[in-house]
């Protein structure tokens, strides 16, 4: 009971573990490339929660700064990935990652 | 200043009968009641009358003397209207769209200092929060437009989102100039830095000659962010029926309407806080006549910020009947090739001014 | 921190985050996944506030909800027949995926709960981190900051180049 009512570092780590596993599941199993991208975003967010939790309980600024850079990189990643997905859609008329297997038109 | 800072909201937050945080609910309810009252009086009746006078018409005259009861009749009509959900619409998205839109518009009021003694949440990142929470509105608009399963709604939503997302950039950079002059993102602190015995001379707009540029850029960009004319192409009635809320009726339409008027007041309040002193009185002390001291205080503060906000809403209505609507490509041209470069220029100039001019 | 209201609000946001993330992953409808992601990002932003990183929380809302989620929604709308509201996608390798999901979850939780080295420091982060972020960005992290801005510029140009319409240019047809 003490564990449940006092919010400690383990609560944040548990949430981030669940988010990471869910994101990995999406990357593994979904056929739509955009849902795969959502899974990657979930994984990045899970990592961010860990950074901030350790930073908060450690008192340093390293995790906070690193999570800021992770957010910047996630924005760049999403923009480029979506541009690639839209190009794939233009060529294959589908964003199904399991059916895109030819390297040439 | 009379009372100390945030006296009323702190007192309300401490009001916890039987251990329930009832005072916090009251704090949250005050902006809500304010939005409803202002949208129904100034928003419905005021806008109709003002636009009528600008076009040399009379406006609503039938209900009550000078049509004063028109708002009441409108409310009755909206309440008893059938709440239609189109059969081919995506029910879930159709229902949550207006909700997310309203939450996005309303959350920004949490950091709005209504008076020296009242602010919902005195955040250290208040200004950033107020411009960032617009992101929720964007998602609400997309949900409403997609869920309606109607091409006019979808076109309206996509236009609206493209416009809001693009104009956020010049708006945010222009506000950054104000934040640089203040050296803080805390809304109350920005207001305090602009108070003084000379009244309007302490406002950031009059503190530096460069501040006029971000002021104008933010005003133009805020027109686009709240989809007002001349940037109202998302709801251009001659091209799209009514934009993303074409399919909505009854209470859901009322919620969208309240959200639009809420964000109209919010951008007007932000521009008056960052550049025009927020709740500070513009009247200076002239010798023995201490006009500034007389018009400063918690109640006067609420009066000043609301009247400054209403003034900018009046300018928005005025522009609506003065300027023609822009085309989509002209809209993007104005944003990316005019406003954004000038916002960067004003950013650099403000930085130089703040460093080298005492 | 054992204030009951605080704990209740924490669990509320934790539940919103986890359940909406599960909905993102398990929903068959792409557009529902995308809108559910809104609640995940918002719940995570709320958790950041609990971790006294208010600036990061607002950045999360601005970048993830205002940028990435809108991009994803546009992506969904561009890559599907626009007037088709039920966009179903299939699931591939469901059983190995489930095993991997449970295995990774169990392994991470086991590691987190059996490591006794999480010794919270006496000086935890308190209050707001806005000013400290400003100082750190301009002193210790100035090189990563500049690198991030160059990377963003490169990504912007690259994405615009990749996604634009080809007018018989050098790209493949």
Automatic annotation (TrEMBL), chain A:
Subcellular location: Cell membrane; Membrane
Transmembrane segments: 6-27, 34-54, 66-89
InterPro entries: NADH_UbQ_OxRdtase_chain4L/K, NUOK/Mnh_C1-like
Gene3D superfamilies: 1.10.287.3510
GO MF term (any one): NADH dehydrogenase (quinone) (non-electrogenic) activity
A single cellular component GO annotation: NADH dehydrogenase complex
Magnesium as UniProt keyword: no
Biological process terms in GO annotation: ATP synthesis coupled electron transport
E.C. designation(s): 7.1.1.-
The entry's keywords: Cell membrane, Membrane, NAD, Oxidoreductase, Quinone, Translocase, Transmembrane, Transmembrane helix, Transport
Pfam families attached to this UniProt entry: Oxidored_q2
Catalytic reaction list: a quinone + NADH + 5 H(+)(in) = a quinol + NAD(+) + 4 H(+)(out)
Topology versus the membrane: Multi-pass membrane protein
Family: Belongs to the complex I subunit 4L family.
UniProt subunit comment: NDH-1 is composed of 14 different subunits. Subunits NuoA, H, J, K, L, M, N constitute the membrane sector of the complex.
Function recorded in the entry: NDH-1 shuttles electrons from NADH, via FMN and iron-sulfur (Fe-S) centers, to quinones in the respiratory chain. The immediate electron acceptor for the enzyme in this species is believed to be ubiquinone. Couples the redox reaction to proton translocation (for every two electrons transferred, four hydrogen ions are translocated across the cytoplasmic membrane), and thus conserves the redox energy in a proton gradient. NDH-1 shuttles electrons from NADH, via FMN and iron-sulfur (Fe-S) centers, to quinones in the respiratory chain. The immediate electron acceptor for the enzyme in this species is believed to be a menaquinone. Couples the redox reaction to proton translocation (for every two electrons transferred, four hydrogen ions are translocated across the cytoplasmic membrane), and thus conserves the redox energy in a proton gradient.
Designated name of the protein: NADH-quinone oxidoreductase subunit K
TrEMBL record, chain C:
Signal peptide: none
Domain of life from the UniProt record: Bacteria
EC number in record: 7.1.1.-
Location(s) in or outside the cell: Cell membrane
Topological relation to the membrane, as annotated: Multi-pass membrane protein
Chain segments annotated as coiled-coil in the UniProt record: none
Broadest EC class assigned to this enzyme: translocase
Gene Ontology CC: one annotated term: plasma membrane
Cell membrane among keywords: yes
Keyword Cell membrane attached: yes
Residues that span the membrane, as ranges: 6-26, 31-51, 57-79, 91-113, 141-163
Listed GO MF terms: NADH dehydrogenase (ubiquinone) activity; quinone binding
Recorded catalytic activity of this chain's protein: a quinone + NADH + 5 H(+)(in) = a quinol + NAD(+) + 4 H(+)(out)
Keywords: Cell membrane, Membrane, NAD, Quinone, Transmembrane, Transmembrane helix
Family: Belongs to the complex I subunit 6 family.
Role of this protein: NDH-1 shuttles electrons from NADH, via FMN and iron-sulfur (Fe-S) centers, to quinones in the respiratory chain. Couples the redox reaction to proton translocation (for every two electrons transferred, four hydrogen ions are translocated across the cytoplasmic membrane), and thus conserves the redox energy in a proton gradient.
Protein name per Swiss-Prot or TrEMBL: NADH-quinone oxidoreductase subunit J
The organism's taxonomic lineage, starting at the top: Bacteria, Pseudomonadati, Chlorobiota, Chlorobiia, Chlorobiales
């Amino acid at each position: 009971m003490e564990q449940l009512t006092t919010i400690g570092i383990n609560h944040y780590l548990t949430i981030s573990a669940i988010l990471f596993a869910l994101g990995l599941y999406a990357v593994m199993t979904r056929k739509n490339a955009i849902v795969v991208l959502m899974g990657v975003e979930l994984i990045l967010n899970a990592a961010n929660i860990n950074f901030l939790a350790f930073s908060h309980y450690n008192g340093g600024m390293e995790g906070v700064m690193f999570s800021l850079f992770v957010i910047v990189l996630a924005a760049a990643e999403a923009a480029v990935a979506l541009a690639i997905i839209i190009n794939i859609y233009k060529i294959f008329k589908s964003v199904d990652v399991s059916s895109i297997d030819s390297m040439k038109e | 200043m009379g009372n100390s800072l945030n006296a009323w909201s702190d007192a309300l937050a401490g009001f916890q009968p039987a251990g329930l945080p009832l005072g916090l609910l009251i704090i949250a309810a005050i902006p809500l009641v304010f939005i409803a009252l202002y949208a129904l009086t100034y928003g419905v009746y005021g806008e109709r009358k003002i636009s009528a006078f600008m076009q040399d018409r009379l406006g609503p005259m039938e209900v009550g003397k000078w049509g004063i009861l028109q708002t009441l009749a409108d409310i009755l009509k909206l309440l008893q209207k059938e709440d239609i959900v189109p059969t081919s619409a995506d029910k879930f998205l159709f229902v949550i769209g207006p909700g997310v839109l309203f939450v996005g518009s309303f959350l920004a009021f949490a950091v709005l200092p209504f008076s020296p003694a009242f602010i919902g949440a005195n955040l250290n990142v208040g200004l950033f929060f107020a411009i960032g929470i617009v992101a929720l509105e964007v998602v609400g608009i997309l949900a409403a437009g997609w869920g309606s399963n109607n091409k006019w709604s979808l076109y309206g939503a996509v236009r609206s989102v493209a416009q809001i997302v693009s104009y956020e950039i010049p708006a945010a950079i222009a506000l950054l100039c104000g934040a640089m002059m203040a050296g803080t993102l805390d809304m109350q602190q920005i207001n305090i830095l602009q108070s003084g015995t000379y009244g309007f001379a302490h406002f950031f707009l009059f503190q530096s000659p460069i501040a006029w540029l971000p002021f104008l850029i933010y005003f133009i960009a805020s027109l686009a962010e709240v989809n007002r004319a001349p940037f109202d192409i998302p709801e251009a009635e001659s091209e799209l029926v009514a934009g993303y809320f074409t399919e909505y009726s009854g209470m859901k339409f009322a919620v969208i309407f309240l959200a639009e008027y809420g964000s109209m007041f919010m951008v007007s309040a932000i521009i008056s806080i960052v550049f025009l002193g927020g709740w500070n009185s513009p009247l200076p002390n002239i010798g023995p006549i201490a006009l500034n001291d007389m018009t400063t205080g918690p109640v006067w503060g609420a009066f000043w910020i609301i009247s400054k906000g209403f003034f900018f809403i009046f300018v928005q209505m005025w522009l609506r009947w003065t300027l023609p609507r822009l085309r989509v490509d002209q809209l993007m041209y104005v944003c990316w090739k005019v406003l954004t470069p000038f916002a960067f220029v004003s950013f650099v100039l403000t930085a130089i001014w703040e460093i080298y001019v005492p | 921190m054992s204030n009951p209201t605080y704990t209740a609000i924490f669990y509320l946001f934790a539940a919103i985050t986890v359940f909406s993330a599960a909905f993102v992953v398990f929903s068959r409808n792409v557009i529902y996944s995308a809108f559910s992601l809104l609640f995940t990002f918002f719940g995570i932003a709320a958790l950041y506030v609990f971790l006294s990183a208010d600036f990061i929380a607002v950045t999360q809302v601005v970048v993830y909800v205002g940028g990435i989620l809108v991009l994803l929604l546009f992506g969904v709308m561009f890559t599907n027949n626009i007037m088709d509201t039920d966009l179903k996608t299939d699931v591939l390798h469901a059983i190995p995926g489930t095993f991997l999901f449970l295995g990774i979850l169990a392994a991470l939780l086991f590691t987190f709960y059996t490591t006794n080295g999480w010794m919270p420091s006496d000086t935890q982060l308190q209050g707001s981190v806005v000013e400290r972020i400003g100082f750190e960005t301009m002193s210790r992290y100035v090189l990563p900051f500049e690198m991030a801005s160059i990377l963003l510029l490169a990504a912007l140009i690259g994405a615009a180049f990749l996604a634009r319409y080809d007018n018989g240019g050098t790209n493949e047809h």
